[in-house]
Write a structure and sequence with these properties.
The structure is a single chain. By secondary structure, the chain is α/β, with parallel strands linked by helices. About 40% of the residues lie in helices and about 20% in strands. It has 13 helices and 15 strands. The strands form three sheets. The protein has a nine-stranded mixed sheet, with helices on both faces. Strands 10-11-12 form a three-stranded antiparallel sheet, with no helix packed on it. It has a three-stranded antiparallel sheet with strand order 13-15-14. Strand 3, helix 3 (about 100-110) and strand 4 (about 115-120) form a beta-alpha-beta unit. Helix 6 runs parallel beside helix 8 (about 210-225). It is globular.
Length: about 375
């Protein structure tokens, strides 16, 4: 099973923390839709013998599209690819776009899962991040969407400057009260060249503190697991039967095609990414060219990719799989590198598998970096 990711590079306004590719100008929307459809057609041979189990509209803000435009893109996938009988088709949406009429129209389309970018239920947090919606719209959009979409998710952000543990707990409790079956939660990060970085450097906004984010993450895990959510991947929590197929495919190393400007693709042996420029993307596609760079992954790259993705999941890393996929040398290297982290109780081994402990969860990316194999010929 594989996934198709479609990047919609438009937003109403720029969030202060975001470094994804997007434009706040909608002038080229129609041309972009045509280009996305054409790229889907141009790349159909990449999935010639592959069954597509997941279609994911990300961005940007996909919910700025009209439902008819979304349907056109979905129909294009069905025209050129083999799609499973029961695919998961997700649309990322902002609360301010989800009117009752919009939700009803989406419900009648092929979309069967909504991922709502709430980020916080507090006005002060939303203003700091420059979100386009307010707290009341967040609650209203979830309440309305739950009437039509059994399969839905919300995003929350923790580690926000001046967010106390108490306020973070209130955010979690509000999400639980709205009975959302899936929650994605991310630590606020300061990306280069974002407005957030500039504001922090100027002292307008206090710095982001890792200790605060780590405490928030521990609270999140404990509270959601107590309510029956499984932390199936570091940032993702789902009730049984509500895990995101898109997220699961990504963290299990399944192949995916990324359509649109700035979108990434992966097939296990190579990684590709499209140009992050709307006019350049549209022009290249109109000339039947794929505006992408490609990186061939060496065996060492593939090992590092495996470690990075699997360590973040509830399934951990299979020692037998490491041996089968990468050979004795990398298997021994992994065992050697993991020992200090096992000794410090950041990792633990249970039969064939190595997992991150609760103590080590927030440090999992750093632990993975210690397990990487670097500067060796492949």
């Amino acid at each position: 099973m594989s996934s198709i990711y479609i990047h919609i590079p438009f937003c109403k306004q720029a969030c202060h923390y975001c470094d994804f590719h997007f434009s706040t100008s909608m002038g080229k929307k129609e041309a972009m839709i045509q280009a996305l459809m054409r790229e889907l057609e141009l790349r159909k041979e990449e999935f010639k013998d592959v069954l597509v189990d997941c279609i994911y509209f990300g961005g940007g803000t996909p919910s700025v599209l009209e439902t008819e435009e979304i349907n056109l893109l979905i129909q294009t996938v069905y025209t050129h690819y083999q799609v499973s009988a029961d695919p998961e088709i997700t649309l990322e949406a902002n609360p301010d776009d989800l009117s009752e009429a919009k939700i009803e129209a989406l419900h009648k389309s092929a979309i069967n899962r909504l991922s709502i970018g709430v980020q916080s239920f507090f006005e002060e947090d939303l203003k700091l991040m420059n979100r386009a919606h307010n707290a009341a719209e967040a609650v209203r959009s979830i309440t309305l969407s739950r009437k039509r979409f059994q399969n839905s998710s919300i995003d929350l952000i923790y580690g926000i400057p001046e967010m106390s543990n108490a306020r973070w707990i209130e955010n979690i409790e509000q999400a639980l009260a709205l009975d959302v079956p899936h929650i994605s939660a991310y630590a606020l990060t300061v990306e280069p060249k974002t407005a957030l970085e500039k504001f922090i450097k100027k002292g307008i906004i206090p710095p982001v503190e890792d200790e605060v984010a780590q405490a928030h993450h521990a609270i999140l895990v404990e509270r959601l697991e107590a309510e029956g959510y499984q932390n199936y991947e570091f940032s993702n929590f789902g009730k049984p039967g509500s895990f995101s197929r898109n997220n699961t495919a990504y963290w299990e190393g399944k192949s995916y095609i990324g359509i649109g400007p700035g979108a990434h693709s992966y097939d296990g042996k190579r990684r590709a990414w499209n140009v992050s420029n709307n006019p350049k993307y549209i022009k290249a596609i109109s000339q039947n060219e794929l505006p992408q760079d490609v990186e061939q992954l060496t065996p060492t790259d593939q090992y590092n990719e495996y470690v990075m993705t699997r360590l973040r999941t509830q399934h951990g890393i299979s020692l037998k799989e490491v041996l089968a996929l990468f050979g004795e040398k990398m298997h021994e290297y992994f065992l050697q590198q993991s020992q200090p982290h096992i000794h410090n109780h950041f990792l633990f081994q249970e039969e064939d598998r190595v997992y991150v402990t609760k103590k080590g969860k927030f440090l999992s990316d750093g632990i993975a970096a210690d397990l990487f194999m670097l500067n060796l010929s492949s």
